[in-house]
Structures are given as structure tokens and as C-alpha cells.
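Field log, afternoon session.

UNIT: design team B
ACTIVITY: writing a sequence onto a fixed backbone
BACKBONE:
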């Protein structure tokens, strides 16, 4: 199923009750004549996902899968860091492999994808 079709179905099913983040839709401009790479995108999306206070308050759920890209590892780790800052009842729900991750799983880092250490 094409991404556009999936996004249409999700919007039709949930309407204004859900906001869908579609990172593949946005492209960064070239930087000093070079196309943006994974590291630049991770910096941008980290800022978007974490929000102004770094707590990721605009998100209630994230679905992750390492099958799609190395960036999924970084996205998981972003939400792990956000959840560590939040009290247990206020953590962002994470779904992995079509199931809800436990609170313990939601606080475990995975190997980095594009993240620079």
C-alpha cells in the first residue's frame, strides 16, 4: 500500500482527532551545496518531536519499527529520553511490532542509527 493511501485511510478513520507526522514529505534544503543527510534530519526531527521544553508533549503515541530505516532506532531513542523525563502516567505510548511496549521497554535505549555520539 502506498504511503499516500495509508495516510488517507488514517485521516478518514480518525479525522481531526489525530495528527500524522510524515517525515518523508519534508525535505531540507542543501547546506553549503551539499544535500542534507541523516544527521541533519535527526537534529530537525528531534527538535520537532521533543518540542520547546524537550518533553514531547504534542505526542501521545509513536509507532516504531527498525524494519523501515536506521532512523527508527534514533526515533525510538528520542522517545526513550522524553519518557525518562516524564512521570509514569504521562509517558508517550510506544507501539513496536504491533503491540504496546511496556513502561520498562519504553525506557531502554537501542543501538543508534544515524545518531552521532
Amino acid at each position: 500500500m502506498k504511503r499516500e493511501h495509508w495516510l488517507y485511510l488514517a485521516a478518514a478513520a480518525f479525522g481531526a482527532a489525530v495528527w500524522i507526522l510524515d517525515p518523508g514529505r519534508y525535505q531540507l534544503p542543501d547546506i553549503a551545496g551539499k544535500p542534507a543527510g541523516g544527521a541533519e534530519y535527526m537534529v530537525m526531527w528531534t527538535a520537532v518531536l521533543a518540542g520547546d521544553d524537550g518533553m514531547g508533549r504534542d505526542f501521545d503515541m509513536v509507532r516504531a519499527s527498525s524494519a523501515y530505516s536506521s532512523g527508527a532506532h534514533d526515533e525510538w531513542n528520542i522517545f526513550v529520553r522524553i519518557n525518562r523525563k516524564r512521570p509514569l502516567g504521562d509517558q508517550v505510548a510506544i507501539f513496536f511490532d504491533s503491540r504496546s511496549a511496556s513502561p520498562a521497554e519504553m525506557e531502554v535505549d537501542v543501538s543508534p542509527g544515524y545518531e552521532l555520539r
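LOG NOTE: The chain has three helices and three strands.
NEXT ACTIVITY: expression trials, pending approval
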